[in-house]
Automatic annotation (TrEMBL):
Lineage, top ranks: Eukaryota, Fungi, Dikarya, Ascomycota, Pezizomycotina
GO molecular function, one term: methyltransferase activity
Keyword DNA-binding applies: no
InterPro entries: EgtD_Methyltrsf_superfamily (IPR051128), MeTrfase_dom (IPR019257), SAM-dependent_MTases_sf (IPR029063), SAM_MeTrfase_EasF-type_put (IPR017805)
Keyword Transcription regulation annotated: no
BP-aspect Gene Ontology terms: methylation
Protein name in UniProt: Histidine-specific methyltransferase
Keywords: Methyltransferase, S-adenosyl-L-methionine, Transferase
Domain Histidine-specific methyltransferase SAM-dependent: 51-334
Length: 339
């Protein structure tokens, strides 16, 4: 692979960012739109992948959104990692490569890295993200705090990261915090997790943060803040489809936003509904008033359902920790046939 590397070594700031496919993120987003928005599956309405919500502008808004008082998904997982960070970090040994899938502003990972640093344990922290500015600002913050942790940004998609991680030697400690993996429709979750499980060798581990809340009021309040921060974030994602498609087809005033629950499993989905006909021949887009676009689904699986996912994907659970404030869990996984 011919990869573009940028190294930042100014004073205390030392990290590098490797372009593992990030400069082609627009094409990856286009592919996701082709597969789920234009050629959506029978019985499903057009769906916009979470990748579209993670533009540079979208992730800048994400940092505000995850600090909203009712957005328990971030605050409870941080509390969990603060409380159980030492026990989790005990599985990370010197020489380990930590790979954080979808790191965003790196706020969550800090309690774990603090424990590792306090043991003077030399490791490399790879943070994977779609947005280069988000990677750079997250790593710059971490770089001022750690002496024993080498910091590397992997700029690209999860598919790019899966390929790149084959070149990173074991022991590897993979992390999917914030229900990034295992939080899709069942078949999609199994397909994604199986792909990552194929990377997990006998010396590796995989930490998965999963939201197993089932209280509709708490979930609803987390996604529907009064100030409309979440709505602005999603609308920024929809506007980004204009950049990806190269056509100004999306106009905020054409669409209203709502949310809905589905059952078995419990899913919260956001739904944009057209308030008038929306037609853009240049993009191959034609909606009637009342047509829907779905995005940003949150699937809430039980602990048993998660264990089933792990088993189907060739993984076994070797540890589990719960948030003191709610039902956010970290599941620690190993290859199923390892001792
Ligand atoms: C909602 S934020 C969650 C961040 C963090 N893991 C947490 O728990 O707070 C989603 C992050 O995943 C990244 N992301 C989403 N889809 C991705 C994909 N297909 N490939 C790479 N990164 C992705 C986004 O860039 C963003 O940083």
């Amino acid at each position: 692979m011919d990869l573009d590397k940028t190294t930042h070594t100014a004073s205390a700031e030392a990290y590098e960012i490797i372009d593992i496919g990030g400069s082609r993120v627009g094409q990856s987003c286009r592919k996701a739109l082709d597969e789920q928005f234009f050629q959506h599956r029978t019985g499903r309405c057009p769906f916009v992948d979470d990748m579209l919500m993670s533009s540079d502008a979208g992730l800048a808004q994400w940092s505000d959104l995850n600090r909203l008082p009712n957005y328990y998904q971030t605050s409870e997982e941080i509390t969990l990692l603060e409380k159980h960070g030492a026990a989790i970090a005990a599985h990370i040994l010197p020489g380990c490569s930590i790979i954080d899938l979808g790191s965003a502003d790196t706020r969550k990972i800090k309690p774990l890295l603090d424990h590792i640093e306090s043991r003077a344990c030399a490791v490399t922290y790879y943070s994977v993200d779609l947005s280069r500015p988000s990677l750079a600002s997250g790593l710059a913050k971490l770089a001022t705090q750690y002496r024993h942790i080498k910091l590397v940004g992997l700029w690209g998609t999860f598919d790019d990261a899966l390929e790149y991680c084959k070149s990173i030697a074991s022991p590897r400690f993979l992390m999917s915090l914030g229900s990034m993996i295992g939080n899709d429709r069942w078949d999609d979750s199994i397909r994604n997790l199986t792909a990552w499980a194929s990377l997990v060798g006998p010396e590796d581990a995989f930490l998965m943060g999963i939201d197993s809340h089932f209280d509709p009021d708490k979930i609803w309040a987390s996604y529907h803040d009064e100030g409309g921060v979440f709505e602005r974030f999603l609308r920024t994602g929809m506007a980004y489809t204009n950049d990806v498609l190269g056509v100004e087809w999306w106009r905020d005033s054409d669409w209203t936003l709502g949310g809905e629950f589905r059952e078995k499993p419990l899913v919260h989905a956001f739904v944009f509904t057209a308030v008038r006909d929306v037609v853009c021949p240049a993009a191959g887009i034609s909606f009637k008033a009342g047509d829907r676009i779905e995005c940003y689904e949150g699937h809430k699986y039980t602990l048993d359902e998660m264990d089933k996912q792990f088993a189907v994907c060739g993984l076994k659970r070797i540890g589990r920790w719960k948030s003191p404030d709610g039902d956010i869990y970290e599941h620690l996984l190993a290859k199923a046939d390892s001792v």
